[in-house]
Predict the 3D structure of the following.
Amino acid sequence: MLRVELRAQPSRVWSYASPLLALVLTVLIGMALFVLLGKDPLRGLQVFFWEPIRTPYALGELLLKATPLLLIALGLAVCFRSNVWNIGAEGQFVLGALAAGGVALLAGPDSGRWMVVAVLLAGVAGGMVWAGLTAWLRDRFHANEILVSLMLVYVAIQLLGFLVYGPWKDPLGYNFPQTKTFEAAARMPRLFDGSRLNIGLPIALALAAGIWLYLFRTLSGFAQQIGGLAPAAARFAGFSSRRALWIALLVSGGLAGLAGALEVAGPLGQLTPYVPAGYGFAAIIVAFVGRLHPVGIVLSALLMSMFYIGGELAQSRLGFPKSITGVFQGLLLFSLLACDTLVAYRIKWGK
Amino acid sequence: MSSTPRLELTGVTKRYPGVVANDNIALSVAPGSIHAILGENGAGKSTLMKLIYGVAKLDAGVMHFNGQQVQVRNPQEARALGISMVFQHFSLFDTLTVAENVWLGLDKHLSLREVVERIEAKASEYGLELDPRRPVHTLSVGERQRVEIVRALLTRPQLLILDEPTSVLTPQAVESLFVVLRQLAAEGCSILYISHKLHEIRELCRACTVMRAGRVVGHCDPSRETNASLSRLMMGSEPELLSARDQAPGALLLDVRDLQLASEDPFGTDLQGISLQVRAGEVVGIAGVSGNGQGELLCALSGEDRRAAPGSVQLAGVDLSQASPGLRRKHGLHFVPEERLGRGAVPTLGLAHNVLLTRHDAVGPLGWLRLGVLRAQADEIIARYKVKAGGPDAAARSLSGGNLQKFIVGREIDCNPRVLIVSQPTWGVDVGSAAHIRAEILALRDAGCAVLVVSEELDELFEISDRLHVIADGRLSPSVPRTEATVERIGAWMSGLWPSPPNQQAINAEGETADA
């Protein structure tokens, strides 16, 4: 008989092995899905896992897509570790994009390169304001941050719609709902010729290191996490829960806003109604698959980016439905939650 | 007395991951006997009771009840056999009445009116005062326990298991409980009485099984033993002796003046005009039945509750009424809370990181953590206070209650506080560690620290305090020197009946309520 038994100590080995096993399960179930859809499973695997890293250009695209996921998930890791459930990173991403876009639209043909800094800072500020709204409502009125942050996503999308269909619409844009393309001075400098990869990647990697230092090497980062692990102990120690709430939401809002700025002033180059691409929600999965740890999040952001690109390739090359990316994201999250049982429990055969 | 034991266990074994909680236990309880199970915390007493009551399943061994071999798979089957249990922590709904609470555990075919009648009949049969129509949140802890006992009695048990029943009672309430238990035993009901309070066992029981580290280490007749011989059996060694001393206290350090505070918890206790002074070099004890405002008072003193009026909490002339816990620590006021896991320490974190909760010696400029310093600090506390732990990175929850308490008390003592406030210093701690912790507290007092101890264990307060207060219903009694304190006097005060100072007599006379 199969039995599940509580371990005396959580297993260290399985806390690392669980995401890998989850990935294997995701691939296996994915292959079964390919077969059921009447497609060649090996070809499907190749499109999902080999095509995105086959050429330097493809690799650049993979890293480009991983950047916003990485940035947002880093902020969410700070939030979730502080027991603050920010589900609205998508909205903070949109507001960051809006604020950055607004500044980028001010740039003229002869603006200097400092414009890039202004665009990025505006993005950070935009995301912070949107997350700060959630923090304020929670702090002042005890409103549930899960609901408030989630609902503010839809407000942010409406705000974006209003601006690109209305005041910010490009007069020369044939009435398409989009702003004019940003001036070169306001666009993110690219890293290499022949790749769309821009300065966002090194910024995100530096911030991953910064968040790691903050969480594990500073008293403030320690205090944040105590609030999540044992609220009574945080109160006993004198770590303010209000401070933890504000720091968590401002950091994650700022990072989501920065991701939004990098996205509109990077690959997109203008504001359109299609700015919200679901990165804010996908980053929740990225954060958990990465164990809420900056190093793990770097890896899981790459994986999630692979699913995005693989999903698109599977659509165009193999005629898969559009929802295949979402299916893979969901498979991965569910497999991970199932495999995580093994961290605290062991499975035994026999009586 | 018939020759068939009411309950007989042979070779009972229960393993949990990493530990054998019960190892080949043999136990025989005669009909109508009050049988004590004595052992330190973690000796396996509670596990054994859970096996008998069907809460946990035994891995090996045989259980006979009235001569029949039985397998108890769940508490319903236990109750059907005639086994009842009163747990240490009550399972009552605060917002329901006594009768409704009892009704929940009974057959559904009874009407609420019938339940009320049965409770009244059963209560009067045993001389227990209990109004079935009162909501549970209005009851004192002693009354709640009566509800649990009556609930157990309504199933007409042949074996009643009581887990640490006196830990929440005043000495007078303990006496009336013993009367009930003796009456029950005289009627033929067997009682398994779990406790680590030696004098109670010597007074009540004629048979005793002693457990240590999951095994039975002895049987005895407690009435023929002394406290010392029983604790030798229980621990395998004698506890450390405390040194007595007489020394005049020094400067006034902790000064609480007319502290009024409404509780944040709807079922909590409001603090009413608490005044209390602790001087350097003295230990002041606060006795009282739990839930009489101790928690609220400690939060107001530690800074976890910062709503106190300005001037009501002062440390050596500095007003700290609304200061944060961190600021209070900077002024030398340290606090050891009652709950170790989750409040005094973070269960999943290592001991080194738990040092950071109250000690910031390892924090450098800009809040930078020097992990090497932190580990060395934890190592030092572990060594100095003889904490059994797997090093500075061992998770707090991997330590036994006693060892974690030694670590937490050590963490606070180690920085030479001016004022130390300790809540339940040895609650749930084995006898050896308890003696060690008390000795550390006294050493700190001798070094000139002002110590305030809040405890429900009168023995402990008599042992270490220089002066005693009693807290009842959010009010604090005048202090009495240890030499003038007796169990009877403090016990009466625990019901709120203390002589008021002349100017307050008129006010207090109407507010006094007795909890007999």
User: Anything to note?
Assistant: Chain A has a mean pLDDT of 91. The two ends of chain A are 6 Å apart (CA to CA). The beta strands of chain A are 2-6, 345-349.
